[in-house]
Amino acid sequence: MGFAVPPSTDTIAAIATAPGRGGVGVIRISGPLAVSVAEAVVGDCPPPRHAAYRRFVDAHREAIDSGLVLYFPGPASYTGEDVLELQGHGGPVVLDAVLARVLDLGCRAAEAGEFTRRAFENQRLDLSQAEAVADLIDADSLAAARAAQRSLSGAFSRRIDAFRDELLSLRTWVEASIDFADEDIDFLADGEVARRLSILLQHLQELRRQTDRGRVLAEGLRVAIVGAPNVGKSSLLNALAGHDAAIVTEIAGTTRDVLRERVVLDGLSVLLLDTAGIRVTDDPIEQIGVQRAWATLDDADVVLVMSGDGQPSAIETDSAFERLRGDPRLLRLHNKCDLTAGVVGLRDDGSIGLSVLQGQGLDALIKALQQRAGLEGGAVGEFSARRRHLDAIDRALQGLEQAEIQLKVHQAPELLAEDLALANRVLGEINGPVDTETLLGSIFSSFCVGK
Ligand SMILES: Nc1nc2c(ncn2[C@@H]2O[C@H](COP(=O)(O)OP(=O)(O)OP(=O)(O)O)[C@@H](O)[C@H]2O)c(=O)[nH]1
Ligand SMILES: [Mg+2]
Question: Which of 118, 254, 361, 362 is 20 to 30 A from 395, comparing alpha carbons?
Answer without folding.
Answer: 118
